[in-house]
Amino acid sequence: MSKGKEKAGENIPTLDSKYIQQHLANERTFLAWIRTAIAIIGVGFLVTNLHINMKESLSPAGDILANMIGIASVGIGIITIIMATIVYLIKINTINNQTYTASRKYIITLSIFIIVIALLFGSYFLLL
Q1: Are 11 and 54 spatial neighbours (Cβ–Cβ below 8 Å)?
Q2: CA angle at residue 91 from 97 to 2, to 5 degrees?
């Protein structure tokens, strides 16, 4: 039967259903990236909150660094969500077309972003 012409009670397999395990793994990976993005944003809020509570004891450099960490964390978290969504949508097609390749450039880019945040966070505590 052609797609769209199904009888009552009859299920016609979709292209996605041929690769169910791969699509489910893709969804789990996407959700893991979303959790990572939320954690990165949370670090920004944590530093901002810590900064507000300790504002009197911080140097001007610590003040600037805390603001940079907060803004960078939220920005990188948003970028992570956007990149995760793009990669997820690309993988849907590459799985169905059997042309999947690992996305190294996205992993490397996000890893560099997280390292930058970690270095900023570490330098913030050195200035305290």
Answers
A1: no
A2: 40
Whole-number mean pLDDT of the chain? 83
DSSP per position, 107-125: HHHHHHHHHHHHHHHHHHH
pTM over 0.85: no
Instruction: Evaluate the CA torsion angle 89, 95, 97, 103 in order and state its sign.
Output: positive
CA distance 12 to 1: 8
Gap between the Cα atoms of 22 and 96, Å rounded: 9
Q: How many CB atoms lie within 10 A of CB 33?
A: 19
Residues with Cβ within 8 Å of 51's Cβ and at least 6 positions away in sequence, in order, are 58, 62, 63, 66, 67, 70
pLDDT per residue as tens digits for the range 65-96 = 888 888 889 999 999 999 999 999 999 999 98
Confidence at residue 83, expressed as pLDDT on a 0 to 100 scale: 92
